[in-house]
């Protein structure tokens, strides 16, 4: 018995090791290539799967006494191995898959999402892994798959919580999971046009039209294309073209609403059923696209609200299926609604926005926070400011809807893209298949009109739909334009280039300028650095990014005005005034000096946070610890206890002998800067000097990480940890926050440049972490930022703030200024779930809290995963949904009260004449507010006051009255 137990333990350990060894993307790519050319694809053979769990040969059905069973393929061994090792499921067969396994809640519904990606890849790549096995007879039984789909939705739609939290995903899944015999014709039309343009590049212009703005008259254009090119087309190309024409004809065929209503047998007797019946009768033969879209958008809104009132799963399924048909109806008719006046255009934006919300691309509470209508008190006119508000809300809705798609599918798309690059197009396909595609066009038209009326016009090269570009931070730059469509994380950026990203990288090194599709949030470290340093920063749409790709590699001038209009022009088009902005003397004058005259380097004792205050900043420790100590005195119940390791302890350790160098660590550092100065005097180019410095710093950084900690320091850490934090060193998790003297200067924030270690418990890891934090100012990123903006970057001294972890429910940033309003009396807040919220560029829930007590919802969170801090140390990723806002009314009230106190008392408490805004990091645990940091909010005054930026910033009369009957 004992031997059996031992065998089981060994086997379990061995199995665990196998599962832990993930298969590399290159290997998966090889497997897929094999499956594409295999007549059986990812499948091994076909069997009967009987209800008692037994398997039978294809010609040996399950016996009657067992039950009918199902016949379908078995997966190849490598496919099953890939599922176990990487949680990647190729060629999924639904029949006999359990509902729980397919929904895959523990892995953020990954299997369901992978099934959808697989469907997409099959559509655009001739079956993908099933290229040759599409005709492997008996591998998949469509009637069994459809029956499974119905049973799956009966099970899934019985769960109110799942439906509320995952409305978007569930509704999207209906387009791909067989359950009613319907096809996703819109996706098929896009995929067939893509396949044809890949086979025959001359079709590309029509493909772009079908993807961007599909209309019924595109059918005639495709027919004309066939006639014109028929002599050059191969038989296979003609076959694809004919299939596309069939799909387009079917897709644009008018929907018989009365027949659709008649089929909705389960819901006929409900309140919604009666509403639907009346709608169908009134709109079945409507030729007025405007009325049809408005009526359908209102019905979709009613339908979404009716879903939870209806408790029968099959009735819910019928409602969702109707919802998808109605979405298609709006999608087809949106191009036919051609507004002629301002009023009609605003109405189109409003109703397409309503339909976008009703189909799940934003949450209900997000829609409730938006206002896409004009005041009913002014039936015939509106001010420019009121129209601009509608425009801003419309832009927000388009961005949020794209963010919903990305938040739900980006992880799986990234995983698949690593071994199948075609998967990258899945998200774009989902967005282009939504009503938000047409909403974006309508919003762009409204933006063009407002730009003309206000003279706030973007001039972004020659790209179309420029009104969707909006400035975030003022500034100007000149350099090579780099357009990055994929992940930015592997991109090595240069300080003299301008980057267009899908999303900003979390550890951005110095660059000349930036624009992003996903702006993250306006108070992230990246955004604060851009704002502080006058780096021009803008947000743009996915389509704008695509349109900028042809300009990749060109030298451009880039400017964002104080009011947010954007200029990007080719080098040859720069004016003399713009060329004069980029002189060596001006750039050098922007650098500042880190004050070191009052620094105290002989403080060799670990300090209690309670004994530190703002007056110590830059003297014995950095501003994080000094200001948090100040906050501890001002808000003792809302700030944790803590320890401070001052500059002096770091400097004392740097006096030790550095291995293999015959000098101390500090002397090695000084010698590096001295040599760099000598190289500069010899005329050696800047790049070569920087390369030398980075190599030396790499050596120093590695040595610091191995540096022996002095015994008296370790003894003191253990004693003070116990006395101040109440536990032995290694008993509770703590944060180790780098806190240098080069942060929070009057003209340089340094936000996020150095290391913070999250939730460290183990004693050895805490002590090793201290050295890691000491080494972090010498990383390439931190050094480059200092070199670019500081006159004495060698005089950096790190202290460390050690505070116990608080596993907050959500956390974020408060800026005691309205960033969007420009009002010093307003507040800006951004929050994300879990620890470290908002600061690392997450897409955060953002508000403008107005001085008059009002509130403007600026953006929702679109972060699917967040950090929790287990008591055992480290971080644990949890997934979130978006159906409820993060902050509640009491949280917002508490933040207002905190800001009021900070404004009233901070300067007096710190004996400071500082009157500017503050940047505060905070969080909530069980609705209790915790404070983690406060620092001055630094803006780039040069950019804000630049004569040139003022010259390109038009004065806007928001009170200008515009007749709603005005032609557009």
Automatic annotation (TrEMBL):
Gene3D superfamilies: ATP-grasp fold, A domain (3.30.1490.20), ATP-grasp fold, B domain (3.30.470.20), Phosphohistidine domain (3.50.30.10). Residues 621-943 form the Pyruvate phosphate dikinase AMP/ATP-binding domain. Residues 1-20 form the signal peptide. The keyword Chloroplast does not apply. Keywords: Kinase, Pyruvate, Signal, Transferase. GO terms for molecular function: ATP binding; kinase activity. The keyword Metal-binding does not apply. PANTHER family: PHOSPHOENOLPYRUVATE SYNTHASE-RELATED, PPDK_N DOMAIN-CONTAINING PROTEIN. This is Pyruvate phosphate dikinase, PEP/pyruvate binding domain. It comes from Olleya namhaensis.
């Amino acid at each position: 018995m004992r031997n059996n137990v031992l065998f089981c333990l060994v086997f379990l350990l061995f199995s665990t090791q196998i599962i832990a060894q993930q298969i590399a993307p290159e290997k998966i790519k090889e497997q897929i290539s094999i499956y594409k050319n295999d007549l059986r694809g990812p499948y091994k053979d076909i069997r009967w799967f009987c209800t008692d769990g037994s398997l039978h040969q294809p010609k040996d059905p399950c016996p009657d006494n067992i039950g009918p069973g199902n016949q379908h393929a078995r997966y190849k061994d490598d496919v099953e191995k890939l599922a176990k090792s990487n949680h990647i499921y190729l060629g999924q067969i639904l029949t006999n898959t359990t509902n729980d396994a397919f929904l895959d809640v523990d892995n953020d519904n990954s299997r369901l999402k992978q099934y959808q990606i697989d469907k997409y890849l099959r559509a655009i790549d001739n079956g993908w892994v099933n290229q040759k096995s599409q005709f492997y007879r008996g591998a998949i039984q469509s009637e069994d798959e459809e029956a499974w789909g119905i049973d799956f939705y009966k099970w899934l739609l019985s769960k109110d919580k799942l439906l509320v939290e995952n409305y978007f995903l569930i509704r999207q899944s209906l387009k791909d999971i067989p359950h009613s015999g319907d096809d996703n014709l819109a996706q098929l039309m896009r995929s067939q046009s893509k396949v044809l343009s890949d086979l025959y590049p001359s079709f590309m212009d029509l493909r772009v039209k079908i993807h961007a703005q599909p209309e019924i008259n595109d059918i005639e254009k495709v027919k004309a294309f066939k006639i014109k090119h028929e002599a050059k087309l191969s038989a296979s190309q003609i076959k694809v073209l004919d299939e596309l024409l069939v799909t387009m004809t079917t897709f644009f065929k008018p929907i018989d609403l009365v027949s659709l209503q008649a089929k909705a047998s389960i819901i006929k007797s409900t309140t919604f059923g009666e509403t639907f019946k009346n709608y169908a009768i009134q709109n079945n033969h409507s030729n007025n696209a405007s009325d049809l879209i408005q009526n359908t958008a209102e019905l979709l809104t009613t339908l979404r609200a009716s879903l939870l009132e209806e408790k029968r799963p099959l009735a819910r399924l019928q409602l969702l299926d109707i919802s998808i048909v109605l979405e298609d109806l709006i999608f087809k008719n949106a191009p036919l609604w051609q507004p002629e006046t301002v009023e009609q255009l605003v109405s189109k934006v409003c109703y397409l926005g309503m339909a976008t919300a009703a189909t799940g691309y934003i949450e209900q509470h997000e829609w409730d926070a938006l206002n896409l209508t004009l005041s009913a008190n002014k039936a015939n006119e509106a001010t420019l400011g009121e129209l601009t508000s509608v425009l801003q809300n419309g832009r927000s809705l388009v961005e949020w809807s794209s963010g919903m798609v990305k938040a739900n599918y980006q992880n799986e798309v990234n995983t698949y893209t690593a071994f199948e690059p075609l998967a990258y197009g899945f998200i774009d396909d989902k967005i282009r298949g939504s009503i938000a595609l047409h909403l974006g066009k309508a919003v762009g038209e409204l933006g063009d009109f407002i730009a003309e009326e206000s003279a706030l016009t973007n001039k972004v090269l020659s790209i179309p739909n420029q009104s969707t570009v909006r400035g975030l931070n003022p500034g100007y730059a000149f350099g090579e334009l780099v357009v990055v469509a994929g992940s930015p994380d592997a991109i090595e950026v240069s300080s003299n280039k301008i980057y267009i990203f899908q999303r900003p990288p979390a550890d951005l090194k110095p660059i000349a300028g930036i624009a992003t599709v996903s702006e993250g949030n306006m108070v992230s470290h990246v955004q604060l650095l851009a704002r502080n340093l006058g780096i021009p920063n803008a947000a743009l749409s996915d389509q704008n990014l695509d349109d900028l790709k042809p300009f990749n590699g060109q030298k451009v001038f880039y400017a964002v005005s104080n009011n947010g209009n954007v200029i990007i022009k080719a080098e040859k088009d720069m004016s003399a005034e713009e060329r004069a902005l980029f002189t060596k003397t001006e750039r050098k004058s922007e650098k500042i000096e880190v004050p070191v005259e009052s620094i105290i380097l002989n403080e060799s004792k670990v300090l209690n946070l309670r004994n530190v205050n703002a007056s110590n900043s830059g003297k014995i420790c950095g501003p994080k610890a000094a200001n948090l100590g100040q906050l501890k005195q001002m808000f003792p119940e809302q700030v944790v206890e803590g320890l401070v390791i001052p500059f002096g302890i770091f400097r004392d350790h740097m006096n030790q002998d550095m291995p293999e160098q015959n000098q101390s660590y500090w002397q090695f550092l000084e010698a590096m800067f001295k040599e760099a100065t000598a190289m500069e005097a010899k005329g050696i180019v800047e790049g070569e000097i920087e390369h030398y410095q980075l190599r030396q710093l790499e050596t120093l950084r590695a040595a610091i990480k191995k540096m022996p900690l002095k015994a008296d320091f370790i003894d003191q850490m253990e004693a003070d940890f116990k006395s101040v934090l109440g536990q032995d060193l290694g008993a509770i998790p703590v944060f180790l926050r780098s806190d240098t003297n080069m942060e929070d200067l009057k003209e340089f924030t340094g936000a996020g440049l150095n290391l913070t270690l999250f939730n460290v418990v183990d004693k050895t890891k805490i002590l090793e972490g201290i050295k890691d934090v000491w080494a972090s100012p010498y990383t390439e990123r931190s050094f480059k930022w200092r070199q670019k903006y500081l006159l004495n970057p060698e005089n950096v001294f790190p202290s460390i703030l050690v505070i116990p972890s608080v596993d907050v429910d959500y956390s974020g940033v408060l800026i005691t200024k309205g960033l969007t309003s420009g009002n010093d009396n307003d507040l800006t807040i951004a929050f994300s779930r879990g620890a470290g919220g908002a600061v690392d560029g997450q897409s955060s829930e953002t508000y403008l809290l107005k001085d008059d007590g009002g509130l403007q919802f600026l953006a929702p969170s679109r972060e699917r995963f967040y950090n929790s801090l287990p008591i055992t140390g480290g971080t644990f990723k949890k997934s979130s949904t978006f159906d409820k806002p993060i902050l509640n009314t009491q949280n917002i009230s508490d933040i207002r009260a905190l800001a009021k106190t900070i404004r009233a008392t901070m300067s007096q408490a710190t004996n400071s004449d500082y009157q500017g805004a503050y940047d505060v990091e905070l969080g909530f645990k069980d609705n209790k507010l915790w404070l983690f940091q406060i620092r001055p909010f630094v803006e780039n005054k040069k950019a804000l006051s630049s004569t040139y930026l003022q010259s390109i910033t038009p004065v806007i009369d928001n009170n200008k009255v515009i007749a709603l009957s005005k032609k557009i």
